[in-house]
Amino acid sequence: MRRGPARPATDAAAATAAGADVAAPAVAPVEAPPVRQSLRTEFAFELPRGYVDDMGTVHREGVMRLATARDELIPLKDMRVQENPAYLSVVLLGRVITRLGTVAYIHDGVVENMFASDLAFLQDFYRQINAEGHTRAGVSCPHCEQPFEVELGGSRLGES
């Protein structure tokens, strides 16, 4: 067996040979892959009164999706919105409501013919899901003032 020239000792090897306590080289901890959370983009709701179609059918249960920047920009070009800025919410809601009972096609004309209480509910619901990202609201009991959360969209009025 042939031996080559002696190699110079590394600092760690030399320190170990000299009896010094040498720590292992620092290794960056391996992070676990991030837990993938799904983004909820559609939210169910139930209208307080309900939309009444031409046949007299009442439609209460629906679904609203999150709005995109495009959803909020396109209505600004609409002449009805330019003439009456209050009409913005009607056009916008017509874009983001994806289902309402058995109504085949949701558009601003459907929203325009809703009861005022349902329109107010949908405006609040829109703000809640797009600003807060959920449909819960903090409230307090009028009797004991105890705070609690209620679900805005998925239950009938008075239920939580």
Secondary-structure map:
Blueprint: H1 11-17, E1 42-52, E2 58-65, H2 69-73, H3 79-83, H4 88-96, E3 97-100, H5 108-112, H6 116-132, E4 136-140, E5 147-151
How large is the radius of gyration? Answer: 31 Å
Strand order of the largest sheet: 1-2-3
Classify the helix fraction into a percent range.
25-40%
- Mean pLDDT rating: 81
Number of H/I helices: 6
Largest sheet: 3 strands, antiparallel
Low-confidence stretches: 154-160
Helix- and strand-based class?
A: alpha+beta
Element order: H for helix, E for strand: HEEHHHEHHEE
- Strand tally is 5
Question: What is the end-to-end distance?
Answer: 84 Å
**Beta-strand residue percentage:** 15-25%
The dominant shape is: extended
Explain what this protein looks like in three dimensions.
- The protein has helices at 11-17, 69-73, 79-83, 88-96, 108-112, 116-132; strands spanning 42-52, 58-65, 97-100, 136-140, 147-151.
- The chain is an alpha+beta fold.
- The protein has a domain at 42-151.
- It is extended, with a radius of gyration of 31 Å.
- 16% of the residues are buried.
